[in-house]
Amino acid sequence: MSRTCLVTGSASGIGKATVALLAQRGHTVIGADLDDGDIRADLATAQGRAELVVRARELTGGRLDAVVSCAGVAHFDPLTIKVNHFGAVATLDGLRPLLAAGTDPRAVVVGSIDSVHPDPAIVAAALAGDEAAAVDAARAAVDRGEGHLVYSSSKAAISRWVRRAAATDDWAGAGVPLNAVAPGVVVTPLTRPLLDDPQTRALVERSVPMPLHGHARPEQIAPLIAWLASPENTVVTGQVVFADGGADAVLRGDSTW
Ligand code: NAI
Questions:
Q1: For the domain 4-244, what is the CATH superfamily, name and number?
Q2: What is the pLDDT of residue 240?
């Protein structure tokens, strides 16, 4: 059955591959991105977040069957917490009423293997919903030479948000599974500059070891997102599913079970 799905970050990488797969399966896909797609909105801003919801309502008549929040950046900069956490929360919360009107509604957000080593101050501010404090904490991390923690913290915060929200009346109570997919290293415009430089590539390989098949292509992540967003998923919710070639198993080992 054809479904209506909205994907943010649709212009590139994992989002683009997800749009292509959903469309190939016969679904209607609304793409949202900065300067491309059916909806052009900057999810770093309150105005862009509001525009996303207004335009989605206009384009769908107020009904969505699936939302995939994929838009993200990996700058050593407070912008990263704004887009990756607050933009994603605004996408999911803002479009939840449209999902409630849909059929077999599902929501998926893209996290990251990097979420396993965050900065607690950034995560705490983000989960408190305090964007100004989260930006301050991110700036503090950058100032002390730990700008990389802004990205990992943005992904830890959104992952923890998913786990907290998924079991509530708003999501599980409304029959909407809500999950995160956490990729390892995927070759996209986001990572290509790091992988093209031999020094940073070695660093990436050390920090994200991927014993199964090495670095992934976006097309390898899209089917998992598509399944979590499909009616076939009736029991999986509140999960952060690592799609990382074994990196989580190597990095966290026995510490999780
Ligand atoms: P990408 O750079 O190829 O695509 C990201 C898309 O998000 C772009 O089209 C971009 O324009 C859009 N975007 C960025 N800022 C935006 C904003 N303010 N408002 C609206 N759209 C915006 O990156 P990729 O690799 O496909 O990443 C997609 C998601 O996957 C991101 O959330 C990223 O953090 C995550 N991820 C990527 C990994 C990788 O190795 N490539 C690994 C783990 C997670």
A1: NAD(P)-binding Rossmann-like Domain (3.40.50.720)
A2: 98
